[in-house]
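Contributing: when you submit paired examples, paste them exactly as shown. First protein:
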Amino acid sequence: MAKIAIDTNLLAYAEGAGDEGRRARAVEVLAALPEQSVVLPVQVLGELYRVLVGKLKQRPQAARANVLRWSDAFAPSDSTWSAMQSAFDLSADHGLSIWDALILSVAAEQRCRLLLSEDLQDGFTWRGTTVVDPFALRPAPLLQDLLAPEAVPARRPRGPTVATKARR
């Protein structure tokens, strides 16, 4: 099974940042991903905390609890010095922000086939990891296969989305 890394925007939309269409799509994608194949760069968790506190105005304690629930749902992957060095290269050679580059670098280091993100160029491939925009009108075939109803049994979304929506 292909490994998949997820970027901050997918979790932030699932938490209610953005419009209802993006929230619904993020929840759909996250619920369909095979839990054991998901890589969650710790950089994503830090960025999510910042979005929850800054943009969504959650109290720090609530934001911490939500971030920890996501880390329980998907295995966090630490940033290494090697990943940071690769991120410097990505940033210098391709003009990526250092933090987006670090997320892609960690995904590649973990041998992910896909990085789900709307922040990076859809289709950009680096060291075997391809960036796929899960919000694109025509998602990449590999993502479509992963999200096909016959490929994954129906289940409820993981992470804090259900609880978060209930509190609002």
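Second protein:
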Amino acid sequence: MFGRRKKNDAGSASAPGAEPFVDSVEDEDDDIEAADTTAADGPHDLEDLDDDRETVAKTRLDLGSVLIPLPEGGQLQVEMSQAGSPQAVHIVTQFGRITIAAYAAPKSPGQWREVAADLVTSLRNDKAETTVETGPWGRELVGVTANADLRFIGVDGYRWMVRCVLAGPSGAVGEGQPLVRLAHTILRQTVVDRGTDPHPVRTPLPVVLPQVLAEQLAAAAQQQAAAQQSAAQQAAQPQAAVPAEPVAPQQDTPPQPTAAERDRAPRRGASGSAIQQLGG
């Protein structure tokens, strides 16, 4: 059973959200105001669950530091760093794009409040219209930019922080919109694996792609590299020389055509080719 263990307690309590993710959007309780990661509301810490990682991964996309349920019809976009390693995985839906990532944080909560303040400053410096709203986990930021509407959702956990970024067309990230409700549902069923390795505060936790997805990306990269190499080779090849038309050797006294030949010959004008004008 997908549950959440109480720390320092041998017993366990069941938690909702255990079922495989489907294409429905859960109803939200309008009375939820404060942020907390209780048994009834994820994201969940992998160490607090009754199920092991293999069981949890059966109904989620395993990205190493986070295990995310995928919505029906959602597509994945992988963002690679300059070094060639995955740094973000985006879920593209019919309503817009959802990006969930985990970051290292101190043991005490409060990192999201600091990050949110920095985001507000950055958005306003970029001339974005910015507002702060209250969601199931506390404050959520909404920014209206020239290219897209954005919503930032943050959740503090034990030595980790999850940040969810929504991007969509005008009005898509407003309160109660399908994209926002879908993101809240996904976050409630997200599982974080902080691991034991030390990471500086605010550092993104490693993203590890599933083997199948990694193989697909590698194959696509090889095809793209082969196409670029082929195009470069074609561009580097010299153009084949066009053989010149043979020109009859000039004679000291060219033969004069007969009257019949002059009548049959086509008339030449100034628009004729260079070859045609020879001897004209």
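If you have annotations for the second protein, write them as plain sentences, like these:
The helical segments are 53-57, 111-125, 178-188, 211-236, 259-264, 274-277.
The first strand starts at residue 3 and ends at 5.
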